[in-house]
Amino acid sequence: LSFLQEDKVIANVAAFSLPLLINGEKINAAGIQSVMTHPNFRRQGLMTQLMGKMIEEIDKKCECALLFTENPELYTAFGFKVVQEYLMTIPYDKNINNNDSLLKKLDYYNIENRQLIHETIDSSQRLSNSFSTLNFHPSFYLNMYDSEWNEKLYYSEKLDALIVYEVENEKLKL
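^ GNAT family N-acetyltransferase, sequence as received from the core. Prediction below:
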């Protein structure tokens, strides 16, 4: 959903199907993304209108919605609740020689890398029946078109797994 002015998007919110498995039960859910308002049009209620309409549409088809954001306080008025995140740490000596790293840097725009990405995702197995996404493919591929996400993409042959990570201020973010 978007508001346009002179053929330009000034506010937007989008949703995608995000079926979940929770305690072994399939839940029809939606993910909300691309929430934005152009700076010149903020504080005019545009996002309130768009989010209200989006939630109304989601409520017709889904049991719940998820929204990942760095600013959760903006969405509590719409009924979203903050879920606690956890930070885990282990000591790491960055001076150890990492030339033997088993991680291969991937580039989603490279055809061979993209084939490996598709094969890895297609053969992946769910890690948990307690909580898992059932169709993460579209959102994963969409994120890879963002150069910042693409720069963080690696493959572990040992684990046969894709890993998206970065090290920032001596913190590993997965």
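The chain has four helices and twelve strands.
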